[in-house]
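User:
Care to share a sequence and structure tokens?

Assistant:
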Amino acid sequence: MNNKGLMFVIKSHHTYEQLKQITSPENVMADEYLDNHTYTRLGGRADFYVTPETYVEVQEIVKLSKKEGIPFTLLGNGSNMIVKDGGIRGIVLNLGRLSKIEVEGTKLVAQSGARIITASHKALVHTLTGLEFACGIPGSVGGALFMNAGAYGGEIKDVLESAIVVDASGNLLHLPADELDLKYRSSNIPDKGYIVLEARFSMKEGRYDDIKAIMDDLTFKRESKQPLEYPSCGSVFKRPPGYFAGKLIQDSKLQGKQIGGAQVSLKHAGFIVNLDDASATEYINLIHFVQDTVKAKFGVNLEREVKIIGEDPA
């Protein structure tokens, strides 16, 4: 081993020990395969995969990353992203252990690692209306804020009152919703380098039967139209102005198109599924193929809704 390789091993061991001092040792995994932690079942290894249990632990990990110059990536629950086959260097943070949801009158307070689906069902139990649209969104609460998730005419910005975040320096901030610049499938959270820890939703009182009827209807629509039987990253593309992405892909005769184990869904053209042990490279290549084909046929640029992170394989 040369000196450069030796220094990397020493620094990695030092980082590993520091992380275990911040959170419980069982919350720190070295050289962890990320395909175990993404909805697509794609992704290479993370140098360190960390699952903190408190807001203070998140702050300390962010501060460690900044102080030591260690790359830092927030994975969420991996429902709307693709991790490349080369994996991710440095620290990968997953907030799945921060999953508490509480109701205070007409306010629903959810930690970022909770599933937004779970939050919608908690609202139902307390007969609060406003989150019905989220009953089929597979992501976390933090991820839902990150991209202003929406479905069936509803969006996070419609009900979000405020959020608690950690900034890039490890400071804890309480922010009103209007400071997150929530727009169609976007926010300023990635640009600001924020990590969402908690969301506070402003709800309205409703009738249990009415809320459940809406959720049942939306669940039926989702299950009947979306290829939930296969791993995927959900809807791959944003809706282009004046068009529907799925219709453009369908009209391009791309349903069933396959590269390796990745396939444009036969059930819904807006989805790409991991049909047969696909690699991230195959999945990404199929996305590019779809974009190029639709552009050539209709002159429309399909913008990705899904985020691609990580490194290409060596």
Observations:
- Residues 1-10 have pLDDT under 50 and may be disordered.
